[in-house]
């Protein structure tokens, strides 16, 4: 820096004679050139100081050298990227789980297979040890207990139909909102209403988690949310398909009979 | 976290959902699928050059532990590393799986990072082909 300081005492203007006009024009031109050079050096100094300010991180032993500073920045950026990579990997894993759950729910048009997939998601992806799947009876619009997994409490095992009485389940079936418990009135950890086009076609009632799964986490909430929508449409589609296929078979049988007669 | 292509893993698992999960998470590894222990054993007899077996415990016809006992009794198959992935997560259940000869034990539900870490770790311990 000192090498630049020895040219800071030049006259403020090239037109301002320092010798009362004795220096010829060529000298004044040279002075103007020097002033421009001084300005360039001054700008360069400012730029260097700015770069040093940005790059130079001071340690207890004093300012870091340029190479050390760059290394420190590179290390910090590497750490930042590594953290982001871990986060992105985690998000990719979550998306894969959601994708697979959705894929498998819509992989079959057999109502029993769809129910089985819901049970597999509850057990393998959510970690539910005890749960109950309720599905609407299309004739009387009541809710049937279709799956009881993991020895759910006797209240569920003794009935083929849900009669009401659990406020979390009743609330979820009534307004289609996801409910989390347990509460004094309900042992359910979560009630996932299965809804399609504003109609509740069933609910998944989670009563107990696997021992090594302490609680439902944010990822589970995403999965339960997805399950509520996709399981409902998968059940709906499979029921419609199964009904249509049955009618088709009946019609084909009738046609065969007519043709034979 | 990436996986080495060209490897072959036999998945013995009764859930189609979990088969699909492995298919998505373990790309580009080649997977052979079996839905119970008996089918898994049959697959292994036909294709014994698998690099690893991912095994569930609760399955129809032949459980994971029965399958494990059978392959550990056959010297050529006994050296294939086995990763148990199960909802059975109590300490004694994990210990039973490891004592039966599994290389590692992963509890369901699992996260992709955990699965890849264990698969890579088992893979790294294997002697180069």
Could you walk me through the main structural features you see in this protein, from its secondary elements to its overall organization?
- Helices cover 56% and strands 16% of the residues of chain A.
- Chain A has 261 residues and is α+β, with helices and mostly antiparallel strands.
- Chain A folds into two domains: 54 residues, no CATH class; 136 residues, GAF domain (Beta-Lactamase, 2-Layer Sandwich).
- In chain A, the strands form two sheets. Chain A has a six-stranded antiparallel beta sheet, sandwiched between helices.
- In chain A, β7 and β8 form a beta hairpin.
- Chain A is elongated.
- The N terminus of chain A is likely disordered.
- Chain B is an alpha/beta fold and 129 residues long.
- Chain B has a single domain, classed as 3-Layer(aba) Sandwich (Rossmann fold), CATH 3.40.50.
- In chain B, 43% of the residues lie in helices and 18% in strands.
- Chain B is built from six helices and five strands, in the order βαβαβααβαβα.
- In chain B, strands 2-1-3-4-5 form a five-stranded parallel beta sheet, sandwiched between helices.
- In chain B, β4, α5 and β5 form a beta-alpha-beta unit.
- In chain B, α2 packs parallel to α3.
- Chain B starts with 7 loop residues before the first strand and ends with a helix.
- The mean pLDDT of chain B is 92.
- At the A-B interface, α3 and α4 of A face α1 of B.
């Amino acid at each position: 820096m000192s090498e630049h300081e020895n040219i800071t005492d030049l006259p403020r203007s090239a037109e301002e004679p320092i010798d009362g006009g004795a220096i010829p024009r060529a000298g004044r031109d040279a002075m103007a050139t020097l002033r421009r050079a001084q300005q360039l050096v001054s700008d360069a100094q400012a730029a260097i100081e700015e770069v040093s300010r940005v790059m130079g991180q001071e340690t207890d032993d004093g300012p870091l050298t340029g190479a050390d500073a760059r290394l420190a920045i590179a290390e910090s950026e590497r750490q930042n990227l590594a953290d982001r990579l871990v986060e992105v990997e985690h998000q990719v894993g979550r998306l894969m789980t959601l994708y697979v759950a959705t894929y498998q729910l819509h992989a079959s048009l057999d109502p029993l297979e769809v129910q089985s997939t819901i049970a597999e998601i509850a057990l393998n992806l959510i970690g539910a040890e005890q749960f109950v799947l309720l599905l609407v009876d299309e004739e009387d619009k009541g809710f049937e207990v279709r799956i009881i997994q993991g020895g759910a409490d006797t209240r569920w095992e003794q009935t083929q139909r849900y009669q009401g009485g659990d406020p979390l389940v009743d609330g979820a079936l009534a307004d289609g909102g996801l409910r989390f418990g347990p509460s004094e009135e309900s042992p359910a950890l979560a009630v996932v209403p299965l809804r399609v086009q504003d109609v509740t076609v069933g609910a998944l009632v989670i009563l107990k988690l696997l021992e090594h799964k302490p609680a439902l986490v944010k990822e589970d909430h995403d999965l339960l949310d997805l399950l509520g929508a996709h399981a409902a449409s998968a059940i709906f589609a499979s029921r419609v398909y199964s009904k249509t296929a049955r009618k088709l078979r009946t019609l084909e049988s009738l046609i065969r009979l007519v043709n034979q007669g | 976290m990436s996986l080495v292509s060209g490897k072959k893993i036999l998945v013995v698992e009764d859930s189609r959902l979990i088969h699909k999960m492995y298919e998505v998470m373990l790309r580009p590894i080649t997977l052979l699928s079996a839905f119970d222990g008996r089918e898994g054993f049959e697959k292994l007899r036909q294709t014994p050059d698998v690099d690893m077996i991912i095994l569930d415990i609760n399955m129809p016809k032949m459980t994971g532990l029965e399958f494990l006992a059978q392959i550990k009794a056959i010297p050529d198959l006994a050296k294939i590393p086995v990763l148990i992935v199960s909802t059975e997560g109590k300490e004694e259940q994990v210990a039973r799986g490891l004592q039966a000869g599994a290389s590692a034990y992963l509890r369901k539900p699992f996260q992709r990072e955990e699965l890849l870490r264990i698969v890579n770790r088992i893979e790294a311990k294997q002697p180069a082909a």
